[in-house]
Every structure is written in C-alpha cells, then in structure tokens.
Amino acid sequence: MTITPAQQTRHRRCAFGLFVAAALVFASSWGFLLWSLGEGGGRHLPAVLWVLTVNLTIVILIVAFWQLRKARPPADLQHD
Fold it and tell me: What whole-number distance in Å separates Cα of residue 22 and Cα of residue 59?
C-alpha cells in the first residue's frame, strides 16, 4: 500500500502536535512533582498526578513516533 503525499503531511502534522502535547504534559508533570515535594509533605494526590503525567508523556511520545513512522515512504520507494 502506497501512502500519498497528503497522508504524509497529515501524519507529520499530527506527530508535531503530539510532540507539543507531550512537552506540555511533561512540563505539568514537573509542576506536580514540585507540588508533591513542597512544604507539608504527605500529599498523595500530587504524587499520583505526577506519575500519571509522566506515563501519559511516554504514551504520547510513542504515538507521535508512530505517526512519524507512518509519514515515511516505504523502504522500496526510497532512493539513495
């Protein structure tokens, strides 16, 4: 199955958006980490949210790289 240039563009755009989303989720995970390590300690909600956002970042990155992989033409069509 060949992939059209329009499909390649759509996959690249989706991958770029997912990379931006992963960066935002990762930045928010740092906020949750700092909140959980802040004064008062013993707060479980920020720690749980930190773990969830880190795992969500990993999942988003996996999907983004998958979209980039889909945007590449098949190996037999690539020229050196």
Answer: 9
Give just the sign of the alpha carbon dihedral 60, 64, 65, 67. Answer: positive
d(CA 28, CA 26): 5
Instruction: Show the tokens assigned to 47.
Output: 């720690």
Evaluate whether 18 touches 67 at the Cβ level (below 8 Å): yes
Helices and strands in the chain, H and E counts? 2, 0
Say which DSSP state 77 is in: G
Across the 80 residues of the chain, what is the mean pLDDT of every consecutive 10-residue run?
A: 73 92 96 85 83 96 91 62
Rounded alpha-carbon distances, angstroms, from residue 35 to 27, 30, 52: 13, 8, 14
